[in-house]
Amino acid sequence: MSENLTSGLGRRRFLLSSLGIGAGAALTACTSNAPAGGPPAASAPVAGGAGANSEPGEQVTIGFSAPAADHGWIAAIANNAQAQADQYPDVTFSPVNPTNDIAQQIAAVQTLINQRVNALVILPNDGSQLTSVGRQAMEAGIPVINLDRIFDSPLAYRTWIGGDNYGMGVSAGNYIGQRLRDAGVANPVIGEIAGIDNLPLTQQRSQGFADALQTYGFAVGPRQAADFTAQGGQRVTANLLQAAPQLDAVWNHDDDQGIGVLAAIQQAGRSEFFMVGGAGSANAMRAIQEDNTVLKATVTYSPSMASSAVSVARLVAQGRGLSDFAEREVPASITLASATITKENVGEYLPLGFES
């Protein structure tokens, strides 16, 4: 998952729902990593056309590079980008092989630059280490749509689009804080299972969580950092549960690692607390809907951002703006809102979920 914009780059932040390119206006089928015989995966959400934006323009080629699909969220990113490109008769989509090797990703993007694609959508393995290749593309006249993990310099991209990591923490903290306050819990023990601690995105999520809880007079209690995998989630949750014999609530940053988190909770036979997830996977939403685990909510960080990134790349490459905006140019940054999904509204969000 991503790094959010630094404060200096956050001068223009737009909620995606206001752009007229919001994902989910239509759905299209795509392959998924759902197990055979399991529940069907949600279709890839695609951005709906809005006014003049839906009119065919000049033919453009959009290059695409992202990490390898080592978990459901990344798989959904690639599926959504392809599904969105398929909506446009004026777009040739040119993805390179996904990889978790930074040197290989740099080489793949350089290949797209040499092919003179009209625009690039890049979700870097590491924003800092791919900043130089983003700048190479921009200096070659190829606009870069920087998806999710942000480059170090605004000179490396035309537009950044991604989720609100701090807002995820705020949403989770507000849900937990309000629920505990309503239950009359005075001094709750609130656990946190984070992602990778040295990533700015994890730090931002944790800061938002702590700040929101503070408004209720609460504080974060036992905290463990995992690695956005089910295996890591299970391992660190087992440690956290051993160290904390009593909990009132837990926030897990990521629904992919949440598979392991829930497994550890079930193995420990613990049920005295409730849990909030993160990202909005379909399996997490189904668990919330069925209401038979400690998982009662999740806060969104939707991979539908990839659908909108392709839409934005098309408009930029064609020299067009957003038809519902007064400005002639596509914005320099687009930040998605983080919604809180509960049993009451899960039906609205389930079609946008991704399979972990």
TrEMBL record:
The lineage of its organism: Bacteria, Bacillati, Actinomycetota, Actinomycetes, Pseudonocardiales. The keyword Signal applies. Pfam families: Peripla_BP_4. InterPro entries: Peripla_BP_I, SBP_2_dom, TAT_signal. It is found in: Cell envelope. It comes from Pseudonocardia humida. Residues 35-56 are annotated as: Disordered. This is Substrate-binding domain-containing protein. Keywords: Signal. Residues 35-47 have a biased composition (Low complexity). Its main location: other. Residues 62-320 form the Periplasmic binding protein domain. Belongs to the bacterial solute-binding protein 2 family. PANTHER family: D-ALLOSE-BINDING PERIPLASMIC PROTEIN-RELATED.
